[in-house]
Design goal:
392 residues; binds adenosine-5'-diphosphate; binds magnesium ion; elongated; six-stranded antiparallel beta sheet; 3 domains; D-amino Acid Aminotransferase, Chain A, domain 1; Rossmann fold; four-stranded antiparallel beta sheet; alpha+beta; Dna Ligase, domain 1
């Protein structure tokens, strides 16, 4: 689960990670009020679009101004705009709020982040002197400019490791204490808040040698959110895909994709294989959906409803391996849901496993329209044949 920058900074403050003074505002008037409270010495402020995507600076979503009128103007321009960045996709994201902050006198922009490294099964701290820009580009062109420090999950971050990172970032002596505190506390947030990622880009050194987080990005492990009711309250449903939000209400593992084949599968591995094979047959999945090994009638109906409410779906493909979810139970669920939702789209079903013959009988007796196929290849090819415009 992602959160906004202003929320991430709120969390950082709780962990004593230095961030600029600032507050969120939902209207230009509020933005001016925030700026008045900030009372910066030089009257310089930054107005920053709050969306769940990076690259806002380049997209025109971050403005540095030098008066209260400037704050109002910037907030007017940014709130309500459809902000397009390299992370939003071409349609962009509508901005609902801005973070108004004191502007900092930046001497250097650095980078630091923590993610879980799957290969070593350890958290890894990544840091670079090339902050502020696309870290992906640095990783591609100058990978040696990113240092990595792997943390033992039981022992935790050791002081020498924090120092190693700070030295690699060439932190000036005056800022060293701040930097070490920041690195130590960043690791603490990562662990205690069950984060999937924390990222500060840029981490800045100011002209007077202070060190702090100018940007803040936090992504939480959704499977651990039950432990953090305070963090769940940060969730902004407007930033998420409406169909995904709906699916999450029924504990369905659903991810919206760009194709037009609605896939209903049990088991994440089979769901991935299903997407691969239909792609191979010239079709593309409209979604990833794993209804789980023990899906109930209700879950199936909700899954069906979500697939059908997706306007891009032209064909529905059900691919089930009957294990805990037996094929007859599935067939009953499908028939019920197809009737109730008055399903009109072509439906391709492939089932294997427990009670498959009974399942097929139930489908055959139901009177609903569908095509049933034995093999995954035949089913995928059938699916593609129903598409208005096969991809390949
Ligand atoms: P994004 O990563 O979405 O582009 P950032 O928060 O990193 O947004 O801001 C982009 C750039 O804007 C930063 O690299 C920095 O140069 C400038 N900036 C952001 N916040 C401030 C601030 N408080 N004071 C001065 N400059 C800022
Ligand atoms: Mg940034």
């Amino acid at each position: 689960m992602k959160i906004h920058e202003y929320q991430a900074k709120e969390l950082f403050r709780k962990y004593n990670i230095p961030v600029p003074e600032g507050q969120v505002a939902f209207t230009p008037d509020e933005a001016v009020q925030v700026a008045q409270i900030l009372k910066t010495k030089d009257n310089r402020y930054v107005v920053k679009a709050q969306i769940h995507a990076g690259g806002r600076g380049k997209g025109g979503g971050v403005k540095v101004v030098d008066s209260l009128d400037g704050v109002r103007e910037a907030a007017k321009q940014i709130i309500g705009m459809q902000l397009v960045t390299h992370q939003t996709g071409p349609e962009g994201k509508k901005v609902k709020s801005v973070l108004v902050e004191e502007a900092s006198s930046i001497a250097r922009e650095l980078y630091i982040s923590i993610v879980l490294d799957r290969a070593t099964a350890r958290p890894v701290i990544m840091a670079s002197q090339d902050g502020g820009m696309d870290i992906e580009e640095v990783a591609e062109k100058n990978p040696e400019r990113i240092i990595k420090e792997f943390i033992h999950p039981v022992i935790g971050l050791q002081p020498y490791q924090a120092r190693k990172i700070a030295y690699a970032l060439n932190i000036p002596a005056e800022g060293m204490k701040d930097a070490l505190k920041l690195i130590t506390n960043l690791y603490k947030v990562f662990i205690e808040a069950d984060c999937a990622m924390v990222e500060i880009n840029p981490l800045v050194v100011t002209t007077d040698n202070r060190v702090f987080a100018l940007d803040a990005k936090v992504d939480f492990d959704s499977n651990a959110l039950f432990r953090h009711p305070d963090i769940v309250s940060y969730r902004d449903l407007d930033e998420e895909d409406p169909l995904e939000v709906e699916a999450s209400r029924y504990n369905l593992n659903y991810i919206k994709l760009e194709g037009n084949v609605g896939c209903l599968v049990n088991g994440a591995g089979l769901a991935m294989a299903t997407m691969d094979i239909i792609k191979q047959y010239g079709a593309a999945p409209a979604n990833f959906l794993d209804v789980g090994g023990s899906a109930t009638d209700e879950a199936l109906e909700n899954a069906f409803r979500i697939l059908l409410s997706d306007e891009t779906v032209e064909v529905v493909f059900i691919n089930i391996f009957g294990g805990i979810l037996r094929c007859d139970k599935l067939a009953e669920g499908v028939v019920k849901a197809a009737r109730k939702l008055e399903m009109r789209l072509p439906l391709v079903i492939r089932m294997k496993g427990t009670n498959v013959d009974l399942g097929k009988q139930i489908l055959a007796d139901s009177g609903i329209q569908y095509a049933v196929e034995e093999t995954l290849e035949a089913a995928a090819s059938k699916v593609a044949s129903f598409l208005k415009q096969p991809v390949a």
